[in-house]
């Protein structure tokens, strides 16, 4: 390391010096000797203190895994793997099956992705490739503002604005024209899977578009110029020159958005209806893994009940862990080699 | 990009076919539509929030504690204070550890062990907030025997640490080596150089990271649900349930009372001002340049 190499010459190492010579040495040299000799212990202390902070991060994740595993033990022993394939959630008789929550989490997240991905990629394409220079910064900042809004405020807005709009206009229309598909059956309540998917979509657009923007920016400018020089239109340039090169990274961004959607709690809890059922219709109320924990954890009486909820949390943790690791890897394959961006 | 397109088309051997040009226009229109569709909810949320919030704010909101259910009036004074209180606990616990871990990664972490810590920080960053809540419940609430401000603070600190760690590392790595070498050249010890030279030079960047982490957790509700629990009265004890703005908004939004809905909007406005204020401050600081040294 450069630092160490530079630091070393400053250190007058211990040398065999005759006793009378020591006294002859100048005062300042002695002082610097003492100072440098004295900095070894603080240096080591500082190093260990910082390392302890790093270890704290490791310890926290270890603690999360340990807590989740030990506290879900009871439920795991009672129900085994069947826990995730049974659909009766019955606290009174101490029977727990997480299937409706798994189903609700997957369906609401996928619905959110279907809506959010085209929008997010469209926004990213517009900002990086089409917008005039002066508009790029403000547009990027504005979409990122969406990410700064707390989940509970999204929920509040969804309850008082989105849900009534869905109930009065969108759902009757969907039912009338698309009812035959079976996805839009039942009374238009407003609250339900569709509302949850929509609000999730709004919430994950910023993260997907931010990552897509990042990987598109990482595509070398020569790629664009080369494709344009062959006579391509702008769209052809974007498609063959940019999107194709950035596709792994964009996929990573989408998966990262999925990870966010899977773990999202408050906004979903407020609009999904919170009923543990597996229904085909998107109008029907559902329940997600995160929202069952949010709703029932503090009221859970009985060890098995609490343990079952922690097991749902453990499953949620593992799924988001896998999803995030895959996403990080995909983004890394595109952006490696380009200098790290601050922020 | 637009100018180079026309340049290319000027020199193309054959004119670009109608269908290709149509496709190009269509995609441009679709991209613009996407931007509009994304900005619409943003404008909707902000517009509605400001409209509902400003109409609902009054003096009592900032000075009174919640009225009993169904009664008109009252405010969120204790919730605002509670949020500040919980965030302070979280910052006291999270900021030093986060910055310390960042220093470790930047100064001593260019090795396998550093990679492990870096990866773990990213993992921690992706843990759903509700799961963090379960863990804080397990390690603080169950140990103490009751819900408390401390438990909420611990939960939020766990969420702040990875963000602060990674931004601190990034910012410290941006400090030119020359600056550090100059310090070593003067015989300054390593720890002193790291604290007084490297960290000092990167201060505004590190503050950016802290503010981003702060903005991220300020509105968090899920990890507080079964840690701080909420409280209708004042509380300054670290081991007692405490009100928080986000929790109060959640409770009020799902209540059947119009006056509580009104206050939920007012609370949201205050919360968003807090957060957007922090984010904007970060923008201003970071646009002035990371390095001012």
Under CATH, the homologous superfamily of chain B reads MetI-like
Domain module count of chain B:
1
- CA distance, first residue to last residue of chain A: 27 Å
Largest sheet of chain B: none
CATH topology (fold) name of chain A: MetI-like fold
Helix-strand sequence of chain A: HHHHHHHHHHHH
Most extensive contact:
A-B, 103 and 117 residues
- List the quaternary state of the chains: heterodimer
Could you list the spans of chain A in which at least 5 consecutive residues all have pLDDT below 50?
1-14, 22-34, 339-343
Low-confidence stretches of chain B: none
CA radius of gyration of chain A is 28 Å
Total domains of chain A, how many? 1
- Helix count of chain A equals 12
Q: For the record, what CATH class of chain B applies?
A: Mainly Alpha
At CATH's second level, what is the architecture of chain A? Orthogonal Bundle
The CATH superfamily name of chain A is: MetI-like
């Amino acid at each position: 390391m450069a630092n160490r190499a530079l630091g070393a010459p400053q250190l007058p190492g211990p040398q065999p010096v005759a006793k009378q010579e020591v006294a002859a040495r100048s005062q300042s040299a002695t002082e610097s000797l003492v100072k440098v000799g004295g900095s070894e212990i603080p240096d080591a202390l500082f190093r260990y203190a910082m390392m302890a902070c790093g270890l704290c991060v490791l310890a926290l994740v270890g603690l999360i895994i340990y807590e989740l595993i030990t506290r879900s033990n009871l439920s795991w022993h009672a129900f085994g793997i069947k826990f995730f394939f049974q659909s009766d959630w019955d606290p009174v008789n101490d029977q727990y099956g997480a299937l409706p929550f798994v189903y609700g989490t997957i369906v609401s997240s996928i619905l959110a992705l279907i809506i959010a991905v085209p929008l997010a990629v469209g926004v990213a394409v517009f900002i990086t490739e089409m917008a005039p220079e002066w508009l790029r910064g403000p547009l990027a900042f504005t979409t990122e503002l969406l990410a700064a809004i707390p989940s509970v405020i999204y929920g509040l807005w969804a309850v008082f604005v989105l849900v009534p709009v869905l109930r009065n206009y969108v759902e009757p229309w969907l039912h009338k024209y698309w009812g035959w598909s079976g996805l839009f059956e039942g009374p238009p309540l407003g609250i339900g899977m569709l509302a949850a998917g929509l609000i999730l979509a709004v919430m994950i657009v910023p993260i997907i578009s931010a990552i897509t923007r990042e990987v598109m920016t990482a595509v070398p400018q020569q790629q664009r110029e080369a494709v344009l020089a062959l006579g391509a239109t702008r769209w052809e340039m974007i498609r063959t020159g940019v999107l194709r090169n950035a596709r792994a990274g964009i996929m990573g961004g989408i998966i990262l958005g999925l990870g966010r959607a899977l773990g999202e709690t408050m906004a979903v809890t407020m609009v999904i209806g919170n009923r543990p059922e597996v229904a085909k219709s998107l109008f029907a109320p559902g329940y997600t893994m995160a929202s069952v924990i949010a709703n029932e954890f503090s009221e859970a009486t009985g060890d098995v009940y609490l343990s079952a909820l922690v097991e749902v949390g453990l499953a949620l943790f593992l799924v988001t862990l896998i999803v995030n690791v895959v996403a990080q890897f995909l983004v890394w394959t595109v952006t490696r080699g380009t200098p790290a961006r601050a922020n | 990009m637009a100018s180079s397109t026309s340049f290319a088309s000027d020199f193309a051997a054959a004119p670009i076919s109608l269908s290709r040009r149509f496709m190009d226009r269509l995609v441009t229109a679709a991209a613009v539509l996407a931007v509009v569709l994304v900005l619409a909810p943003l404008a909707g949320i902000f517009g509605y929030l400001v409209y509902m919030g400003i109409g609902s704010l009054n003096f009592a909101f900032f000075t009174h504690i919640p009225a009993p259910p169904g009664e008109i009036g009252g405010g969120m004074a204790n919730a605002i204070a509670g949020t500040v209180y919980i965030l302070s606990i979280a910052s006291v616990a999270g900021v030093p550890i986060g910055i310390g871990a960042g220093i470790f990664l930047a100064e001593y972490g260019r090795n396998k062990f550093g990679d492990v810590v870096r990866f773990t920080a990213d993992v921690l960053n992706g843990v759903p907030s509700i799961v963090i809540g379960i863990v804080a419940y397990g390690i603080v609430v169950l140990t103490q025997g009751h819900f408390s401000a401390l438990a909420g603070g611990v939960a939020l600190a766990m969420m702040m640490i990875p963000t602060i760690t990674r931004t601190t590392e990034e910012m410290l790595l941006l400090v030119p080596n020359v600056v550090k070498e100059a310090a070593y050249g003067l015989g300054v010890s390593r720890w002193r150089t790291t604290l007084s030279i490297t960290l000092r030079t990167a201060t505004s960047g590190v503050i950016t990271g802290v503010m981003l982490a702060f903005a991220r957790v300020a509105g968090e509700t899920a990890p507080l649900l079964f840690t701080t629990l909420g409280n209708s009265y004042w509380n300054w004890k670290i081991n007692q349930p405490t009100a928080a703005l986000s929790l109060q908004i959640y409770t009020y939004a799902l209540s059947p009372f119009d006056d509580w809905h009104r206050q939920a909007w007012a609370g949201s406005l205050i919360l968003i001002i807090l957060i957007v204020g922090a984010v904007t401050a970060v923008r201003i600081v970071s646009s002035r340049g990371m390095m001012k040294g």
